[in-house]
Amino acid sequence: MSTESSDAQLVESLRTNDFEALGSLFDRYYPQVYRTANAITRDSAVAEDIAQDCFLKLHQYAHRIDTSLPLAPWLYRVTVNLSYTWISRRQKRRISLETLVDQLMSPAWHAPDHVAEQGETVQQVRQAIGELPFNQRVVIVLHYLSGSSLEEIAEILDCPVGTIKSRLYYARENLRRRLGESYRGVEVAHGYAGIPG
Amino acid sequence: MQEFQDNFFDECITRALKSDPMPSAAQQRRVRESLLAKAEQQTMLPPLSPTLFERLSNSARLWGKSQIANLYRVFLDDSAYRRAPHGYPSMMRHQRPHSTFASAEFMLFA
Fold first, then answer.
1. Does A196 touch chain B (CB under 8 A)?
2. A125 in B contact zone (CB under 8 Å)
């Protein structure tokens, strides 16, 4: 399979059970799918499973995918749905304190060198994003990490653009409120706070 | 000022999200192998039957068109009113100018 093949051509090949085509699509989109799932779930192991399930669904639904449309929004939609399922199941299970502690102390998030690399602000912003309600978190992740426009996010989440705008607005307001003093401190450090409005 | 603050805030969010590590090559290879093994055992779903969908959409379209035509005929079509002042009604078209009906002549000849 040529590396020049378009997504539509690869999906067409996949319909004939061409696993090389599935591998090519995986190579092309896995990092984006994994990072999106990781940003939503805040769990690298779960993100890995979600990304794999996403490509399994791509294989399973190959005949039902509209190849005249771009593939990335379909993959993001499946990723968001799988993440939502995982989060709602986790909430139902009411995970034990030990599991929660294990998760918070997982190497992907709190390895000492990682923390040192990222700095305090990045950690605080990430934590604040993680505490947002699911709908707002998804919009933030798709907008800032995946670089999707509001119209694309509306397409992915099957919502009106106005709803996405509103969620983004409230997500940003929530983040500002959650970051509070620490954010203002960073502004001062960067010389933004002294500029008259 | 507000714009600077917003830009800075956007930058903070983007930086925080993009600071997540990319999946390593080894991890990607491992997941790829596992994916292909699982996909080989998985059955693809067949395409959705287009005939049922087409049949339903055609019926809906025809029904809609007939409803629109009926509404037009009832509320908007005034051709009958415009035709009324001119000429004779269709039932009078065989009447002769001297008021004898063509059908009466046919009866006489018969």
1. yes
2. yes
**For residue A102, what pLDDT is reported?**
55
This complex has an ipTM of: 0.74
Q: Would you say residue B38 has pLDDT above 80?
A: yes
For A133-190, what is each residue's pLDDT tens digit?
999 999 999 999 999 999 999 999 999 999 999 999 999 999 999 887 566 555 555 5
User: What is the residue-wise DSSP string for chain A?
Assistant: --TT--HHHHHHHHTTT-HHHHHHHHHHHHHHHHHHHHHHH--HHHHHHHHHHHHHHHHHTGGGS-TTS-HHHHHHHHHHHHHHHHHHHHHHHT--HHHHHHHHT-HHHH-HHHHHHHHHHHHHHHHHHHTS-HHHHHHHIIIIIS---HHHHHHHHT--HHHHHHHHHHHHHHHHHHHHHHHHHHHHHTT-TTS--
Tell whether B15 is within 8 A of chain A (Cβ): yes
Task: Decide: pTM greater than 0.80.
Answer: no
Spatial distance between the Cα atoms of A133 and A36, rounded to a whole number of angstroms: 16
Please return the burial class of A147, using the count of CB atoms within 10 Å of its CB with bins 0-12, 13-18 and 19+. exposed
Residue of chain A whose Cα is closest to the Cα of B6: A172
